[in-house]
Amino acid sequence: MALERIEYDAGHCQRCSTCKWSHIWEIKSHRFSRNCPSLWYGVFDAYAAQGKNDIATGLLKGELDWNTSREKLLEIIYRCPLCAACDINCKRIMDLDIIGVLDALREEACEKGHGPLPQHKEFIQSITNYDNVWKQPRTRRANWAKKLDIKDLSKKGEKADVLYYVGCTYAYKPGMESVPQGTARIMKKAGVDFGILGAKEVCCGGIADNVGDKKSFAEIADKNLKMFEEVGAKTIVTNCPGCFMTFSEKYAHHLKKDTKDLPYVVKHSTMYIDELIQQGKLKFKKNVNMKVTYHDPCHLGRRGEPYKHWEGKRVKWGLTEPPRELNRGVNGIYEPPRNILKAIPGVSLVEMERIKEYAWCCGSGAGSKSAFPDFALAVAKERVEEAETTGASAIVSACPWCEANLSDGIDASGSKLKVMDILDIIEQAVEG
Amino acid sequence: MAFSDIAFRALQDVLGEENATNDPVVCQAYSRVQWLPPGVLQRERCGLDMRPACVVMPGSTEEVQAIIKLANRYKFPFIPRGSGFTFSAFPTKAGTIVIDPKRMNRIIELNEQDMYAVIEPYVSFVGLQAEAMKVGLTIPTPLAGAHVSCLANYSWHGAYGNSWLTGIGAQNLLGFELVLPNGDVVRSGSMACPEAGNFWNDGPGPDLRGFLRGGMFGHAGGMGMVTKISCKLWQWPGPAVWPTKGNANMKTSSGFSQDQFRWYMIKFPGKYPEEEEKQLKKAAELFYEMGKAEIACVATHLAKQFLYTYSSQTKQDLFDNMQKNVFPQGFVVVGLQASTSLRQLEYEEKVLNELVAKVGGIFVQEDEPAYQVWIGRAANEWLRFGNAQRLARPSDNFSIGTSNVDSIDMIVFDIMEGNKVARDLLEGPKHLGKDFVQPLSVHGGWISPQEYGYWCLMTTDVFPDQAPEQAKEAIEIIGNITRKQIENKSSAAVIHLLGPAYDMLGPMFGNIHLIVKKLKNEFDPYNLSNPGYATRPDVVSPEELQRMAGGH
Amino acid sequence: MGTGEFTRESLVKDLGGMVAAERVFSDAETLKKYAQDTSRAACRLPDVVVKVQSTAEIQKVVKYANEKNIPITPRSSAVGFYGAGIPHEGGIIVDMTLMKRIMRVDTRNKWALIEPGVTYGELQKELAKHGMRALNPLLPHQDKSVITSTLEREPKLTPKHHLDETILTMEMVLPTGDLFRTGAMAVPASAPEKVPDEVHSDLCNSMGPGIDWYRLIPGSLGTYGIVTAMNMKIAYLPVKQKLVFFGFKQLAEAIDAFYKIERKQIGDECFLLNSASLAAILAAASEDISSIHSVLPPYILILNITAGEWFPEEKMSYQLEAMEEISRTYLLKPMESLPGVQEAEKTIAERLYQPWNNGAYWKFRAQGASQEIFFLTPLRRAPEFLSIVRNVAGKYDYPFNQIGLYLQPKQWGKAFQMELSFPYNPDDTRAQQTMDKLYDEASRKLINAGAFFYRIYGPWADMVYSRTGNLHATLKKIKKILDPNQVMNPGQLGF
Lengths: 432, 552, 495
Hints:
The complex is a heterotrimer. Chain A is α/β, with parallel strands linked by helices. Chain A contains 19 helices and 11 strands. In chain A, 60% of the residues are buried. By secondary structure, chain C is of the alpha+beta class. At the B-C interface, strand 9, helix 9, helix 10, helix 13 and strand 16 of B face strand 9, helix 7, helix 11, helix 14 and helix 15 of C.
């Protein structure tokens, strides 16, 4: 039973409300001091990690049961982007696996046949049917790459140093093809030997894991891992933080390994491009005169740390045996995107109040947008309002889901801000 | 009377459906006290009764009044709360509703010139401090953690890292607006007087803060709900934005200009723990001298458990540091701030040097591990509190062993006595065993002199093993320490008056329990306002007293 | 006469049995003396005056009063200013001026434990032996009880935050006659002065039991009980001090600098007087007041820069430097003395911690009597309130330049007490009538404009409480619980 795994963590909540607010030292105003979008929207404590701890404990002790409270349980469990702000904040003080509690609640919902939600099931079914979440034909997965002359590593005999993994959203969403196209052009310019999986590329499966369908996830992960092995992928570069986190953390967890022990190294495109700049392989020659603010995607930022696998138990004083290294958001991918923006001539980067490991989530992650569009939109609008206080003309991010949702937020609020993917700015700055 | 559907629908009518829920899943989030021994016992005693029948979320004073008036009509108990951190914020009997103030989260006024703010119940210390810092002001830094409700903390009990200067919650509360248990609104201080603004309390006439607050805990939510307060702000010579380095739990903040703040750690020679009393007495001497000289903004003695817990980045880090004996004993920590000028700060530093030499203290040097770990990582917490609940880190279970308020000398005595009682229980004939409590327990105490040493607060800490069955033993230790304090006729006895303790101890204190019961009866005749913690209006029989003596 | 079954003779006899016959007074002259004070409150006679010497005696008297349903008016000062000690319904005056013990002084924990009859002069003399001082208001009357002054919340001359609320613990006789102790004094049954010797407490905890009595009792004018002992904070005498004066033509000109001095926590005592008030203080003889008044700046800010035992020169130096910076910023000219007034700095320095000791009380010197209106305000509103007073005074042809002004910061300037005093000739009936009307109208207008009248005397009760919603009803309910027979100083505070 999934909940038994986190009984200790859920049960030792101190009700200190640390999970609800940004890091004290980083809070710059009362207005933008909150860190948990679920609680901000739902208002009652049940929507916060603290509340979910109590709910998990209640389920374990039989104080709550699925039969009488199914609808509300599902709402509370799933109306949450799993942004892990609560987890990171709590771990400043305690050593409780809060994201583990949230994850276990979803797994429990699936185990008991109540979850995931219909909208999530559609995604998972789509992966089964089409190898992507968007119910799009497999054959069109690499349409973005037409005319770019990129190696297709799924073809026999093709090899490359780097596997460029595009992901479902960048591959299929209209308007987003500029990102993988730009990435490909940039890597070519930098002399990177890379290839793609073309139409054989399969969804990373992250969504299945996020919503608690571990069985489906395992199947998808195994499929991808086999593919990576077949193509000999040693370095995987991806633009999508969801895929990045899936390959880095979730696959490692699936294999019961640390990220560093995976048969490949996975990097988000911003990490890779930052390296290329450091190595002198990429230079910015054109001015891009803009004032921008950067939105940290949760799956790249605070959830972007390498995973350390652990199996063990709690012993005296709440220590773990063997000792467990929890991810605490310290080493998330915060600087590479910023390094890039600061390196681009003409770009003026102004920060929002909530950034890096205490960034405000866009609201769309882990199935939130599909199942709770009002919630996702409200959370995005909150972020847009925060971005406007910086005086920037654009929000730059590095995640298709963030960009889509923030874009919706801008439209809904009538803001004059633009949303841009960092790759679009990079491309503008690189000499053509 | 059980909480009825009619009452629930009436609440929904008044507040809107979205602001009143009786869904058990939602209410579940208001049913568990933090994991500490009294909370564990409370859960055992009350079980599912701790889950409120309903949670309501008013958005205004008028809505709070409406809720309380409905409570009077339909006779359901209610619990006003802030962030819900303290154990008195939870039901103890079925049919109780919880009033969650999240929608009342405005900073209504922040007056830079006259140094006060007017806030609603869900304004946390963090948000208020951020706004205050923008205009060169700050707040006391709460040991309960900066995420708690400032209003609730001041109305109930609050102790602060910088209370050498600021005093405790009682000293920081100005005017307030209170919805009494019958639904009437009363305002105190200048807030009560139209056109006078919100800048002060003291009356008019008798000061109602004395009625609302008291001992440590006042009426513990038993006298209605405070819906607005004005509170003091303090001079802040530091930056508007807090300087930080690094991320998450590895974040440090030590980059203050030396022209604005300076930190010091002072230790006292002697073998620890054998000469602990001697060391604490020297710390006391230093505080007395500093009080006489009126220097510093922070002056406190931190027992080693404070130092370990506040400076450790992870639980493993804490245990590793303990192995390395980074903090072999408690230390005095002093902060100086340039309230007047840099020269004033330099003057105070010079005086501090003399005082430390005079009392035989030794400054911990910058290259010593204790300095690097504490000053580098955690000292600034005492000015901008963030991680108070790290006190739970050693064993994921924490209890205040004892606390007291009296002179600095008495506090030292109390610490030694209290720890001795605890050690006797752990190691004496009853032999609860050294493994029962985390090794950091029962060493030294947190000494917090207030208002330049005119009085002093202290706590000692117990970190029991986290298993539920240990909670009773932990309570026994704490109970024994308290009994000893009462035997010693120490001032601590006064501050423990809460709930059942009123009836047990009241006759010792001029029958205060009868006075407070009359107040309770007058203002809350149906005993609806947090009946589990505030005193109950009826006189308790000797048999029930006996029963209560073994309980909470 | 009270409403119980007794006669004056039986009262005298019974009370004489409780205290001592020679300390019970019912002669006309004595009763008249207690029927009035320096305020304009109506003359109301008590039935009997009892001079008590101990808490036990007070308890007996109060219990008796409850049995017989006779009002009690407690007094611990031999002088009254605001009518609080004048009985509204006759009854017994409990006069505690004989209770003059300074029971204990704790120089380490900085407090003094005293009885109600101790005056500032007596206390300062005793504390000076230890290098310490009581925290006093500006030039209190020599007969003013320290406890009365503290309970009436007279603002301290020092603006330091931690020296504003000075009450630690108290012993009280509740209106029922029961003994009650507050804070750390509540725990043992020992006599207050023996507590630190007999139990583990140094009387340093002001909180509880139950509720915070140290907040509830002040301002209650004896209606909630009689304080019979109090330990209160004291402070060290400075080792060095230097007075600095700033003159201003208009009050508004002083505001910013005053705020800044307090914000920067420069010096110790810092207060503003207008020329009328300061002249009354500085004049060696009453006849000199007028000439001194004419040479003083209209408004004078007085700052006392002090230092203790540690490097006093350095401490003085940095404070003076900070003060000079403020002077430059606000284009002020600090003065070490007052031109035209010989040794003004010496006169003030000598008197800072002392009661008035130069004949007629300084507030009365100008014309023989004075009425005061005082309230709390943020400093920035002081000119606005002064303007209101000026207009009202003008309406009654009361010369503005005769009005005394005293502005006292509290807690480093978080609030200021603004005190206006109106000297008048007590033998002039017309002047008295004018004073009554002026006082009434000025008080009303100030209250309506938002002056925070926090110390409630006489007619202010109705003016203030009629505007404060449920506050008075709440205070009355508390009163009823503490004083079920309504014997304690009825009529005060609108009770």
